[in-house]
Specification:
Length: about 260
Amino acid sequence: MLNAKKIRHPKIFFFAISILIALPAFYFFPFFLKREVPFQEFSIEGEKVLIVSDLHLENNKRDLSCIGEFLDKNDIGNLVIGGDLFDMKQNTELSDKLINTVKEMLGIRDGKTNRFFYVLSLHDHDPMFKKEKEEMKNGKEEINIVKGILRLNAKNNQSFYVLHGDYLAKDGGIPYLINRFGISLLYEKIVKKAIGAKNGDWAIMGHSHLPGIDYGSRVANTGSWLNRIVSASDTGILLTEGEDLYYKAELIKIPCEE
């Protein structure tokens, strides 16, 4: 019979194993290392708001001017990009020139939107941005760059939290698997709890590329605009104020050519 060799330094051995397990966990789930994410608040009263995300522009060969056309046709004055606007710009500084290029690609004409919000993803794809927020003017248009979480406040104590969704899991494949093969929008519900949003608040994000909306839990995913692994959904979340002055969230599909 063979005799098993004893581990000479079991504490060191198990410590090394723990480190090997922990390193990937910290990489894929940065929430464990940094839990505080800045919030930026803005007011919306009587205004329509369209929220889209995951356009991944450099590697997206599609004509996305349909987004600007949809804004014009439906008189929507506020556009929110919820992260992953770009695909490989994480080593590039965000600039006015880059923003103007985006507007051209999305068919957004000067003076046709009142406010343009760009919520950066926290880890990959989007350009570097050192400040927590930046407000710029482009003619009559107000451009707001948000690093963290955007909170849109309406009347009647309604709040809509918009973030990319990589607050808990860095890789979008993780929320995709959770939602695709587990419970629909489960990841979004977990993120909503993690950021401290109240039950009556909405949490709207992208990241997983799987569109959906849950009116009971008040969570939604905007879907994506890139055909890569998962087909583009060409969807977004539209916020509109009703006659009772309460805002409603709606998952919509925007007509766009392939």
